[in-house]
Amino acid sequence: MSLEPLYTDEFFMKEAFKEAQKALDAGEIPVGAVVVAGDRIIARAHNFTERLNDVTAHAEMQAITSAANALGGKYLNECTLFVTLEPCVMCAGALYWSQLGRLVFAASDEKRGYRLIEKNLLHPKTKLSAGLMANQSEVMLKEFFKKKR
């Protein structure tokens, strides 16, 4: 009998969704992120742009800073970032500089996602997985913006 691994991509993406829910509850665009090293979450974050009145306070930026502090260094090459929405160009640039090992995101961002740029903005060694739990993220975002309009 083989046992399912306890810590799967789905497990960590669900943790990112918990962060997205915190953002939603605070009136922020519901995007959440966690950074994982090994099988351990070393950083949790969600959007803080409204609360901090800071356009750079995206979940990914908050998570990068928190993870670097937890590791005591600026490179995240041994880490995976799980985020509920495709990073924007700004966040992809920060992920490049952090030399992120792996990026896993849920929903694609058809308007502002980094993949709209013809050139790959991620570090050449960064592995990418897209679409995990995309539907849940899309539903959460659509509901948020429907209530805002």
What does the model show?
This protein has 149 residues and is α/β, with parallel strands linked by helices. The protein has five helices and five strands. It has a five-stranded mixed β-sheet with strand order 2-1-3-4-5. Strand 1 (32-37) and strand 2 (40-46) form a beta hairpin. The radius of gyration is 15 Å and the shape is globular. The mean pLDDT is 95.
Observed structural traits:
20% strand; single chain; alpha/beta; 40% helix; five-stranded mixed sheet; 149 residues
Largest sheet: 5 strands, mixed
In oligomeric terms, what are we looking at?
A: single chain
Percent range of helical residues: 25-40%
Number of strands: 5
Question: Could you give a quick summary of the protein structure above?
Answer:
The protein is α/β, with parallel strands linked by helices and 149 residues long.
SSE order and pairing:
Layout: H1 9-25, E1 32-37, E2 40-46, H2 49-52, H3 59-71, E3 79-85, H4 89-98, E4 102-107, E5 127-130, H5 134-148
Parallel strand pairs: 3-4, 4-5
Antiparallel strand pairs: 1-2, 1-3
